[in-house]
Amino acid sequence: MTADAPQLWAEYQVTALAEGARGWIVPLYGSPAWSQLPPGDPRRYAAVIEAAEQWRRQVAEEERLDQLADDDPAAWYAEVTAGANDEARRLAGRLARMRTLAELDAARAHRPPRQLRATPGWPPVAIPGKPGRYLHPAPCAMAA
What we know:
There is one protein chain. By secondary structure, the chain is mainly α. It contains seven helices and two strands. It has helices at about 5-20, 30-35, 40-70, 75-80, 80-95, 100-110, 140-144, and strands at about 125, 135. The chain has a two-stranded antiparallel sheet. The radius of gyration is 36 Å and the shape is elongated.
């Protein structure tokens, strides 16, 4: 955005007020820090000028958007929803990789225990909960 005359005037005024000052920090207009400044402190005036400039920009942006809404509602809608669309695009990939509630419920559902089978050519399988007991491949499976 290019600087306009009121913006340049405001910047000049704040710069002129700050001339020769050390540690120039302008508190927000109306803040407790602003209220504690002495009445003649140039930072009070600088804060008022900055607040007025911010308000002017805010009103100008609202007027621009109102005019855009009247002239081109589709362009207005695209502009005011652009941030939300960007955020949705950013989150979409992560959301697509997340499991749904139904998938989570299915994963938690009780399933019957799997039937253990010994595989020919492998060592016997220990039977859980029965120390010292093993499953051995069936003799017919070994003949194959």
